[in-house]
Amino acid sequence: MDKQSRLELVKASELAYQAGEYSKVVEQLTELIVYEENPEHYYRRSLSYLQLNEGDLAFKDLNHIVDLEPENTFWLACRAYVHDKLGRVDAAVEDYERVIKMDPEDAVAFNNLGLLYEKQGRIEEAKKLVKQADLMDEAKEFRRNPPKDEHEPFAIAPPKKNVAGIFKAVLSKKSELLEFLKFVRNGFKLKD
What we know:
Blueprint: H1 3-18, H2 22-35, H3 39-51, H4 55-68, H5 73-85, H6 89-102, H7 107-119, H8 123-144, H9 163-172, H10 174-185
Helix pairs in contact: 1-2, 2-3, 3-4, 4-5, 5-6, 6-7, 7-8, 9-10
């Protein structure tokens, strides 16, 4: 398959995903993977597997990506998420702990690890991690939106957000989950 045909198949798979034709996406990306072992193809196929309730196949793809790029914290966090969806809390904890070790400023990983600690009954540790995630999130927000003039008091902070509640809300809605995954894939940066 030539490069142009592969690009057309990538675009077709994106359109199929947007249309909710997940089986078709899996078929198209499986064909692409034969010609190029691109982690993005595996990742997008894993998202389709999740939509088809094929968590084990999604995990298999994410595991392969982590093997290809073991230092990529996004892939590792995605695998942790699937571990959790499949009820493998201990494995998800291990992956999020690795993410935090590799990227100690990953507020989402701190939050998710806190939620997993809560599932394990490690309540005090969970509270500390979620609080740390909240503080990291507030610090990022402050850096993005500093006071408008030098006389504006620093003591006036934006209202606290409950990261755990926001995250749960995001994961409960398909469209917001997809937007969140794009945000994570983009290195936790909003696209300009």
